[in-house]
Q: What sequence folds into this?
């Protein structure tokens, strides 16, 4: 039974029941007041989304006014959802529903960025699904920038002076000559490994370690100076982009300079250390000789003292022998 059918019946009931007419009149008035208030609220809410609904209707977004009102009740901004729906519709993305958008909005995601990234990926023939893009966005990554980097490559300085405070990668060839180099790494985003993949810091660290190792494996520094691309090729073949959010396109040696003669300096330091060791051993031998000399002198003094004592006992022994008759004077 509708409200229009209910009102005449209540009126007839009020006319047929004269004793309770006042009560029914009050009840009917209250009921009409409540219904009117609810209708006023609904009309106000529909009026607030009328322009947005008309815009979506003309664009083929297929988002009804009642659905927009429900969005407001769920604390979802219908402007964001409708505008995103219009962008997706105009770009030919038919499989993105408003429920997905609302869920991502309530999860704290950026719905317009997701839609723009999907449109860019679709235009560039990149396989990017809604779930992947939503996961990248909720992980704190800029999914639109990731798609743009997949289309247009990005160059990373190795090393990056603004991050590490160093401007060169220092490696030492087998002949002991130090080489200072700088590299530029061209990468593109790997959307499939963007969630959970290593960042630029890992790329810089791996490339730096590979360049230093490649320089150290060369017999002479002249090999590196003659063909720096051999180092880049060796580093690129190591697969340094595994388990990272990027795919390495190329590694270019931007600059390479000759540094110190580390081998000669190490040999000089070793020679100086050997001299110090030899001096210490000579000083030890000299000290031992001095100690031995002093010991011999002490023994000589001790032997001389024993001789003096022995000489002092001779007269006493002779006197004792005279007294005992053991010796006689000559001529007697």
A:
């Amino acid at each position: 039974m509708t409200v229009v059918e209910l009102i005449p019946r209540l009126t007839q009931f009020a006319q047929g029941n004269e004793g309770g007419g006042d009560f029914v009149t009050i009840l009917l008035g209250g009921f009409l007041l409540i219904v009117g208030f609810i209708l006023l609220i609904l009309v106000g809410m529909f009026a607030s989304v009328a322009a947005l609904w008309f815009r979506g209707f003309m664009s083929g977004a297929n988002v009804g006014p009642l659905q927009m009102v429900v969005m407001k009740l769920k604390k979802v901004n219908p402007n964001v959802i409708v505008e995103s729906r219009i962008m997706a519709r105009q770009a030919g993305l038919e499989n993105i529903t408003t429920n997905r958008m609302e869920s991502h909005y309530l999860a704290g995601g950026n719905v317009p960025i997701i839609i723009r990234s999907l449109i860019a990926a679709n235009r560039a023939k990149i396989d990017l699904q809604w779930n992947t893009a939503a996961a990248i966005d909720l992980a704190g990554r800029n999914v639109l920038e990731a798609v743009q980097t997949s289309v247009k490559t990005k160059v990373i300085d190795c090393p990056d002076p603004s991050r590490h405070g160093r401007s060169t990668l220092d490696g030492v060839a087998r002949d002991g000559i130090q080489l200072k180099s700088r590299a530029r790494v061209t990468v593109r985003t790997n959307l499939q490994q963007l969630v959970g993949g290593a960042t630029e810091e890992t790329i810089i660290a791996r490339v730096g370690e590979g360049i230093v190792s490649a320089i150290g494996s060369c017999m002479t520094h002249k090999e590196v100076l003659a063909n720096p691309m051999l180092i880049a090729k060796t580093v690129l073949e190591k697969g340094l982009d595994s388990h990272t959010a990027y795919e390495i396109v190329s590694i270019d040696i931007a600059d390479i300079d000759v540094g110190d003669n580390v081998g000669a300096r190490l040999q000089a330091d070793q020679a100086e250390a050997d001299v110090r060791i030899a001096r210490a051993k000579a000083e030890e031998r000299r000290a031992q000789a001095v100690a031995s000399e002093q010991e011999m002198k002490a023994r000589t003094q001790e032997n001389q003292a024993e001789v003096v004592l022995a000489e002092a006992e001779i007269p006493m022994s002779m006197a004792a022998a005279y007294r005992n008759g053991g010796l006689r004077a000559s001529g007697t």
Observations:
- The longest helix spans residues 262-324.
- The domain at 153-264 is CATH 3.30.479.30 (Tetrahydropterin Synthase; Chain A).
